[in-house]
Write a structure and sequence with these properties.
Keywords: ATP-binding, DNA-binding, Helicase, Hydrolase, Isomerase, Metal-binding, Nucleotide-binding. This is ATP-dependent DNA helicase RecQ. Its EC number is 5.6.2.4. By secondary structure, the protein is α/β, with parallel strands linked by helices. Helix content is 46%, strand content 14%. It contains 25 helices and 21 strands. A 7-stranded parallel beta sheet has the order 3-4-2-5-6-1-7, sandwiched between helices. The relative contact order is 0.09.
């Protein structure tokens, strides 16, 4: 089995050997065992299910909440000649139907699913008829209410067991506390324990947490000193632009990135940074997932992340080449206070949640008793402005409505325009002859895409307009006309989160909200926040603090974090100070004032402390207010 796995790794991925634990995880899957893999960011999680799936007969179903990452992996698999499809929110019923048919009857090897798709009876029923070899659950911590990023749709995953009881599960995550590790296995109904976990220590990373009044100045000095490329994380979109402009004004090649940008612009900015055309990317936490850039020398946080799990993942994007790198978190007291305020705002009252639901029904003009299964592009900023409600509690209300099965909300992701002919070729040709206006466009579509009669194909209206020397709006009008004539299906592009009503609309006064669950989540989140504060206030070692939080006991100091460096520096000063005290007192006895004044190393505080330590160690003697060196030592 192992030699076959290595051959597949070499054939499709071009590597001769596996990374640590990949081989063991793959062997566990091939033996049909439920497996939980905890691998650090950049540890090669996808290979752990892609390689065994290529050896097993049937289709591998991959569940992931990260639509952009799913699309990238599908594209990469197709480039390798491996058939793969993805199903996520925003796709039409017809698109989903065709994709599922190909999984049942075609040669598809990988089906990527957004977790909310499991709410659909259609999807679950089609999975029943697929020959499934493996269920791979990415970001598996999302299933745990003890995790930092609980996603209600993940609770649907247990239904996969009833469809294919004998198919093994592979759960993957980069960060999980012991409670989350147990919860993942319980929620996924693991048969036996098979957990593979790498150490959470990254020996090449020098973690730092600095209380800093002048964050911008300190950031600039660190970037200039450290060299190489890096990421600066900030809390909101406005700050991405302000900080990037500050760096550019001070001679640093920088750009900004956030989820509100057009997909093409986000892609261009990311590519420029990946290709080292831009040295520093200033971003919200929307940036970085799935990116494996090896030469990142620093990851700077100008705001405190919401959890240590989130911080560990984001900081872990530094130093993937194994060379020295620095994740640095800078904060002020106001940041600590703001984090707590956001926490309080994130757990709204049941009454507020009910009113958000009521506003949603009105916003999308859904009648009572209607709306089940309806999808909509959702602009939360516009929604909150219209009803004059705060964004943060509204976002939390949506998550609690999702947990209780009323709605489903997907992440914002760019979905290109899609097109499919709905008539036979002969009928289409007859239309071309009769309608000269449409003939050039139809010919271009047929020349550009194969399978456009069987599948939806992505198309670029701007590219068509350029080739046909006409306007973008004219192309769109013709595509819409083809749809109205029932000759084709045309689905325009979107770049917005998708909201689905899972149940018919009810009167908000009759809306059930699980208040006990909300209180439980609030208690869990409070524990996570206190863990962040404890990390900031730690005095021993940053790496040890992170490992301790994730349940890993390691008594050794990392020797590269800010606390270890300060301790080493302090130890060096103290040793030199001890030697100077000895030399001074061997020449002449002194009072405490004379001794402190005559010393040249350290400040008064450290001088007095070392004198007291030497006195406790009996290396000094004190008689009548005069200090002498004990020559017996």
């Amino acid at each position: 089995m192992e030699s076959k796995s290595v051959a597949i790794l070499k054939q499709y991925w071009g590597y001769d050997t596996f990374r640590p634990l990949q081989r063991e995880i793959i062997e566990s899957i091939l033996q049909g065992r439920d497996t939980l893999a905890l691998l650090p960011t950049g540890g090669g999680k996808s290979v752990c299910f892609q390689v065994p799936a290529m050896q097993l007969a049937g289709i591998c179903i991959v569940v992931s909440p990260l639509i952009a990452l799913m699309k990238d992996q599908v594209q990469n698999l197709r480039k390798k000649g491996i058939d793969a499809v993805a199903i996520f929110s925003g796709m039409s019923h017809r698109e989903v139907d065709i994709a599922l048919d190909n999984c049942v009857y075609g040669r598809i090897k990988f089906l990527y699913l957004a977790p909310e798709r499991l709410y659909s009876d259609l999807v679950r029923e089609r999975i029943r008829y697929m020959k499934v070899s493996l269920f791979a659950i990415d970001e598996a911590h999302c299933i745990s209410q003890w995790g930092y990023d609980f996603r209600p749709p993940y609770l649907q995953l247990s239904s996969l067991r009833t469809l294919h009881p004998d198919v093994p599960f592979l759960a993957l995550t980069a960060t999980a506390t012991p409670a989350v590790v147990e919860d993942i296995q319980e929620k996924l109904e693991f048969v036996g324990r098979q957990v593979f976990q790498m150490s959470f220590r990254r020996a090449n990373l020098g973690y730092m947490a600095l209380a800093e009044d002048d964050k911008m100045g300190r950031m600039l000095r660190m970037i200039n000193k450290l060299g190489g490329s890096g990421v600066v994380y900030v809390r909101n979109r406005r700050e991405t632009q302000e900080v990037a402009q500050y760096l550019v004004n001070h001679g640093v090649s920088a750009d900004f990135y956030h989820a509100g940008l057009e997909a093409s612009m986000r892609s261009a900015k990311q590519d420029s940074w990946m290709d080292n055309k831009v040295r520093v990317i200033v971003a919200t936490n929307a940036f970085g997932m799935g990116i494996d850039k090896p030469d990142v020398r620093f990851v700077l946080h100008l705001d405190i992340p919401d959890s240590l799990e989130a911080y560990y993942q984001e900081a872990g994007r530094a130093g993937r080449d194994g060379k020295k790198a620095f994740p640095v978190l800078m904060y002020q007291q106001v940041d600590r206070d703001k984090l707590w305020e956001n926490f309080e705002a994130s757990y709204p009252s049941v009454k507020f949640i009910q009113h958000v639901y009521h506003h949603l029904g009105n916003y999308f003009q859904i009648a009572y008793g209607a709306g089940k299964g309806s999808f909509f592009d959702f602009d939360i900023v516009d929604f909150c402005k219209r009803y004059q409600i705060e964004i943060l509690p509204t976002m939390s209300a949506l998550k609690f409505l999702e947990k209780d099965g009323w709605i489903s909300v997907s992440e914002a992701v760019f979905i290109p325009s899609r097109f499919k002919f709905e008539v036979e070729y002969q009928e289409l040709y007859k239309f071309q002859v009769q309608s000269a206006k449409y003939d050039p466009l139809i010919k271009l579509i047929l020349r550009t895409y194969g399978g456009v009669f069987e599948f939806y194909v992505p198309l670029n209206e701007y590219d068509f307009a350029k080739k046909l020397k006409t306007s973008y709006s004219n192309i769109v009008d013709m595509l819409n006309s083809l749809q109205k004539l029932q000759l084709a299906s045309y689905l325009p592009k979107t770049d917005a989160p998708q909201l689905e009503f899972l149940q018919a609309r009810v009167d908000y006064k009759n809306l059930f909200i699980d208040a006990a669950f909300i209180q439980e989540r609030k208690t869990i989140k409070e524990t996570q926040l206190k863990a962040i504060y404890a990390y900031l206030d730690d005095t021993a070692c940053r790496s040890k603090a992170l490992q301790r939080y994730f349940g890993e006991q390691d008594e050794t100091f990392c020797e590269v974090c800010d606390l270890c460096l300060m301790r080493a520096h302090r130890s060096g000063i103290e040793n030199k100070l001890r030697e100077e005290i000895k030399n001074l007192l061997l020449v002449n006895q002194r009072s405490i004032k004379q001794l402190v004044d005559d010393l040249t190393i350290g400040n008064d505080e450290i001088r007095v402390r070392v004198i007291r330590e030497l006195l406790d160690e009996e290396q000094l003697t004190l008689e009548d207010g005069v200090y002498r060196w004990n020559t017996g030592f």
